[in-house]
Structures
1.
Amino acid sequence: MQMFRARSQATKRVQGDYNVQYTMLRDYCEELLRANPGTTIKIEVEKEPNPHSPTRQFKRIYICLAGLKRGFQIAGRNLLGLDGCFMKGPYPGQVLTTVGIDANNGIYPVAYALVESESKASWTWFLMCLGDDLGLDPNSYFTFISDRQKGIIPAIEKVYPKAEHRFCLRHIHENMKPRWKGDVYKDLLWSCASVLTPRGWENAMKAVEEEDKDLHDWLKEIPPRHWSRSHFSGREKCDVLLNNPCEVFNRQLVYGRDKPIITCLEFIREYLMKNIVVVKKLIAKCNGPLTPAATRIFDAIKSEASQYTCIWTGGAKYQVSQGLDQRVVNLGERTCSCRKWDLTGMPCKHAVAAIWNQGLHGGGEPILERWVDQAYWYETWKLVYECTIEPINGMDEWPKSRCPTTLLPPKHHNQIGRPKKKRKKSVEELSQTQTQTQNTEASIPEAGKLTRKGNTVTCEICKARGHNKRTCKKRQKKQDVDASQDGASQVGASQSGAGPSENVGASQSGAV
């Protein structure tokens, strides 16, 4: 118990006290606003029946740093991923995050919040705060992607009814696994989601219906505008189907979610500062005109475009074909009937072939990269990361808040048993773990020792697999050769009339 108390006191000194940090939260916000002008911080408290009470109970906090806000607006990709992860300390709650995609297809966090739980009320409040920062109104045509978490779907429908809401395809597949397992069904799902045209989506769904009618009916219940590229609008210049940016960002916050509230918020802010520096170092090594990720993608597109032939109509349209693949490209409107250019903002292989053909007739922009949307330009990428996050002073230099009330920790209820820190696994993951455990237990014999069945050994002498050094044939041959050589040397010594012991004695007497 003495060691436990000593460890607890040391942790408090290093990380801070869970209860005391709530009373200092407003001072921390004042310092953050002083160092980063333009930052948005909103704190919401529980309703207090006594308006004259000197204390208020903490409920939520929302933070959008000024540098991240300006950087996202410069990036020009109107897509944000939404996700939440649970806190691990004595005061349960959720960390809500929203993450965009930069010009190099990397993650770009925009805002974060600590709330009491993932519910319609908390997500509605978070989305309204986010809309105030980004200038969104209820009629805004914006794009969100999420994991269909509790409360997030009705919250988006309430705050932004005209927004495009994509569902992460991996989580749709997780919901599908209990009934339809295997790579066959997974490939059918991805073929339906990856196809670019409505006609192609119908054909892909027919293939699903031929394979399994129940799966077809199950997928039809999810509107295709939420999960298939064939029904995406293309306003955001991004065709992602997974919510990986949020997953990557939340994974970086694992070691900060069990800390006191200010320490947790500082962990997030410091990670964001470091991330900007890492990207700025990468930017310094590149020279454009496109970002490294966009350059790799566009080089592959140009390689495919070299196989296509074009027929010019005399205007802005071209017929581009290669075998059965035949599309119509309109360079005036920067569109292609395959819809790849419309969705990503990057000319597809048909468009690149048409641009080359236009250059042969002496028209248009000769530099291919200029046809790519500005969201992928190196200059845009550089401008985004010029918006930095400023450092702050230690708590002894924080200005005192003028708010007359003091914040208290939120309500909490101690759960029975030891607090859980690990991520909650899905049903599929639990079943796989159980199967692996059963296979391991089956391989253990009654004596309690692990079997070597199925393991292949490697010989230390000849490095061959399937035998060890004890049964190695090369070792046996070497031993036979050495034995024969020893026998021959002994025979020669006996013929000379002097044994080994006599030679040693002669050498010793000679030395003396």
2.
Amino acid sequence: GLPSGGNFRPDIRDLMVNIIKFLSNNAAPLTINIYPFLSLNADPHFPKEYAFFNGNAAPVIDGSISYTNVLDANFDTLVSALEKNGFSNMPIIIGEVGWPTDGDPSANKANAQRFNQGLVERINRRQGTPKRPVPVDTYIFAIIDEDAKSIQPGSFERHWGVFNNDGTIKYSLNMGKGRSLVPAKGVRYLPKQWCVMSPQASLSDPNLPNSVAYACDHADCTSLTYGSSCSQLDAKSNVSYAFNAYFQTMNQSSSACKFSNLATVTTVDPSPPNQGNTRDGCRFAIMIDTSKRRRLARPPRTSSASPRIAHISCCHGITLLLALFVLILKY
């Protein structure tokens, strides 16, 4: 259908109206999540370019309005639903919007940079949607990846971060007015050592399947899935990636690199050459050293009272706080 035909599902319409009425009576906004990536991921026939703000897909014509991207269309579908149910002036906040960088063929750093850069530029231009021209508060999801998040929707669920888990930048973003992302400073790592499959071990060893399954049950192996950054590894490197993921998750404990004598510790980085693609190369990570807590300096207070329009939101239940990375674009 078209955005102008938007309405709440009949089976939950009464519930939705009651929720929105409660919000309206208390001068609270309705917060929604919009994920063009999920629209693309769910439908093999979805026009890929329509997911981006600078795409070349044919516009969708809805009366006198021309929609050139799915975010505008999704947002205005909600606006139409609110209008039909008597809430034409209901304020809306986009609580989550972003693009993952791994775990799916369309989830890569190039697409994530293209989408989020286009989103930031829209915000800097104070551009809204056809039915709501005034821009709304928008939260980019997310600061960093979540290596324990459920992957039931897909392996990409653990890779929405703009930053890696250690605070390094995945891709550059021009935030406008000469501002850009900056990496975390003073991050300390565990020793440069990795757990890999022993050269003496055999791929036919009967203990190997259960060992790999155990490692990936307790650590994040989603970068090995189809179309992901490490999906082109050979069999032994696949095993090594799984072993190392578990080894690093266990803070490089010596007992975490046993796996029935199938594994060994090496000081040679097993990450494969990026073969010219430095942005989406497979990386055998090293764990951050979290043994000592350091006090973070309080960020300086701002004298500006202007409203915020774009933010990078943190993750659900994340264990690593990167409060210094909350980037704010102001009117």
3.
Amino acid sequence: MRALSLAALAAFLIDQISKYVVIHMWELARIRSIDVLPPILNFRYGENRGINFGLFGDGSEASRWFLVVLALAISAAVVIWIRRSNQPRIAQISAGLLVGGAVANVFDRLLYGYVLDFLNMSCCGINNPFVFNVADIFIFAGAIGLVFLADDGKGATAGSPDKKRQ
């Protein structure tokens, strides 16, 4: 559980510090756009009132609170599952990344009413209109880690060769 807690705290802090620096200190909220390594990496100000890519982002208070409750419920379920299933350390870290990212986005929803996004990546002549944040990266990485690294309950971890059965 220590690995989960430390990973969650690290993910939360890295996300919140990155948002504070880019959006407030570098004034992205005011200037709206900073080209970092165009076209690959740019900072574009975004207010996400929905889930990924703004889906279900009607901006209503009901949807805001629904998304807060949903994120906290999923985070609690992941923590309970990790505690009960005696997962390997790498799965605990993955769970911590997912939970820390989710809680960071919940914090944004509570503080601002929406999730602050600022990362925009494009490549190869494709102009990506979507923005995301560091918490989204942690959520994605944590979920992928749980899929491939969590114990499947059969004595082998997902992604590793099965032990010979006798």
4.
Amino acid sequence: MSDPAPAFSRGVRIGLDVGAVRVGVARSDLDGLLATPVETVSGDRPVQLRRILEIVRELEPVGVVVGLPRQLSGAEGQAAATAREYAQVLARECVPVPVRLVDERLTTVSAHQALHRSGRPGRRHRSVVDQVAAVMILQAALDQERRTGQPAGELVDHELEAQS
């Protein structure tokens, strides 16, 4: 399948850190250089998806990246299956915006460490850790795109049915 978003196309990109309870959302600048936090979306999956689709409509991105939480070995467990299903539903709902899955090993751990180093108390991490993880996922994807000339990750086929 050909990729609908050519490398280095100008425009905002959105990054998502899909968790069991919350989804962290980040965005890039128009030049795709810098990722910044947007918000943490809570609620059940339908509520989350509605809000994320509102953000997609509002920001009109050239692409969305969803973190794929692989194990250190590279294997995929239940969390990765959940992220794949989430990305599949999102891809169908936000056509023609391409959705890509990108490896996010250790981003939540790194986000907690960054917040701790910044002096933010651990009990206050929960409110922003998903956003920080989304920023890390998106920034890694932006950096890879700049380095390789190709969009990062695996394109999600919006025509496939989500696995249950």
